[in-house]
């Protein structure tokens, strides 16, 4: 089963959107395999956003993501990377469709509520940055046969 990283960023946590966002993920049929509330360290944030190092918004990005606790979650399911990205909406919330997380809850790129992995390689790298193997629970939901084909 495919896995992806979901971060509910400090603005999502501070605004009380954690339950709403996780509820959408679960209602879609995806499962949470690991989750924690963490104030992301500058070191982990630097690793996470390494591809943006040197860009004009990089320091602001690090400052924001380390400013307050985030909820980090490993989400698992069939086609979960693309599915969660579609649920999140476009990075720029003003271009996101209503019904997506960003389209419904965010108004600025710098405070766009969630991060989602953009592919299998980044998902693996990002999950390893924030979670040990022992923290990820492998389990089968009784509803899986009703949400996924064999």
Automatic annotation (TrEMBL):
<feature type="binding site">
    <location>
        <position position="102"/>
    </location>
    <ligand>
        <name>ATP</name>
    </ligand>
</feature>
<protein>
    <recommendedName>
        <fullName>Nucleoside diphosphate kinase</fullName>
        <ecNumber>2.7.4.6</ecNumber>
    </recommendedName>
</protein>
<keyword id="KW-0808">Transferase</keyword>
<dbReference type="GO" id="GO:0006183">
    <property type="term" value="P:GTP biosynthetic process"/>
</dbReference>
<dbReference type="InterPro" id="IPR001564">
    <property type="entry name" value="Nucleoside_diP_kinase"/>
</dbReference>
<keyword id="KW-0963">Cytoplasm</keyword>
<comment type="similarity">
    <text>Belongs to the NDK family.</text>
</comment>
<keyword id="KW-0479">Metal-binding</keyword>
<feature type="binding site">
    <location>
        <position position="85"/>
    </location>
    <ligand>
        <name>ATP</name>
    </ligand>
</feature>
<keyword id="KW-0597">Phosphoprotein</keyword>
<dbReference type="InterPro" id="IPR036850">
    <property type="entry name" value="NDK-like_dom_sf"/>
</dbReference>
<feature type="domain" description="Nucleoside diphosphate kinase-like">
    <location>
        <begin position="1"/>
        <end position="138"/>
    </location>
</feature>
<dbReference type="GO" id="GO:0005524">
    <property type="term" value="F:ATP binding"/>
</dbReference>
<comment type="function">
    <text>Major role in the synthesis of nucleoside triphosphates other than ATP. The ATP gamma phosphate is transferred to the NDP beta phosphate via a ping-pong mechanism, using a phosphorylated active-site intermediate.</text>
</comment>
<keyword id="KW-0460">Magnesium</keyword>
<keyword id="KW-0546">Nucleotide metabolism</keyword>
<feature type="binding site">
    <location>
        <position position="57"/>
    </location>
    <ligand>
        <name>ATP</name>
    </ligand>
</feature>
<dbReference type="InterPro" id="IPR034907">
    <property type="entry name" value="NDK-like_dom"/>
</dbReference>
<dbReference type="GO" id="GO:0004550">
    <property type="term" value="F:nucleoside diphosphate kinase activity"/>
</dbReference>
<keyword id="KW-0547">Nucleotide-binding</keyword>
<dbReference type="GO" id="GO:0005737">
    <property type="term" value="C:cytoplasm"/>
</dbReference>
<feature type="binding site">
    <location>
        <position position="91"/>
    </location>
    <ligand>
        <name>ATP</name>
    </ligand>
</feature>
<comment type="subunit">
    <text>Homotetramer.</text>
</comment>
<keyword id="KW-0067">ATP-binding</keyword>
<dbReference type="GO" id="GO:0006241">
    <property type="term" value="P:CTP biosynthetic process"/>
</dbReference>
<feature type="binding site">
    <location>
        <position position="112"/>
    </location>
    <ligand>
        <name>ATP</name>
    </ligand>
</feature>
<dbReference type="GO" id="GO:0006228">
    <property type="term" value="P:UTP biosynthetic process"/>
</dbReference>
<feature type="active site" description="Pros-phosphohistidine intermediate">
    <location>
        <position position="115"/>
    </location>
</feature>
<feature type="binding site">
    <location>
        <position position="9"/>
    </location>
    <ligand>
        <name>ATP</name>
    </ligand>
</feature>
<dbReference type="Pfam" id="PF00334">
    <property type="entry name" value="NDK"/>
</dbReference>
<keyword id="KW-0418">Kinase</keyword>
<dbReference type="GO" id="GO:0046872">
    <property type="term" value="F:metal ion binding"/>
</dbReference>
């Amino acid at each position: 089963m495919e896995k992806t990283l979901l971060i509910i960023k400090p603005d999502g946590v501070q605004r009380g959107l954690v339950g709403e966002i996780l509820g959408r993920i679960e209602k879609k049929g995806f499962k949470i395999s690991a989750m924690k509330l963490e104030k992301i360290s500058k070191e982990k944030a630097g690793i996470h956003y390494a591809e943006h190092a040197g860009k004009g918004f990089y320091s602001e990005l690090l400052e924001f993501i380390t400013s307050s606790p985030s909820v980090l979650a490993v989400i698992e399911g069939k086609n979960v990377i693309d599915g969660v990205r579609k649920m999140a909406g476009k990075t720029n919330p003003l271009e996101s469709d209503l019904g997506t997380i960003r389209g419904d809850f965010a108004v600025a790129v710098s405070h766009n509520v969630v991060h989602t992995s953009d592919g299998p390689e980044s998902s693996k790298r990002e999950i390893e940055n924030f979670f040990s193997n022992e923290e990820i629970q492998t389990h089968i939901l009784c509803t899986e046969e009703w949400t996924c084909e064999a």
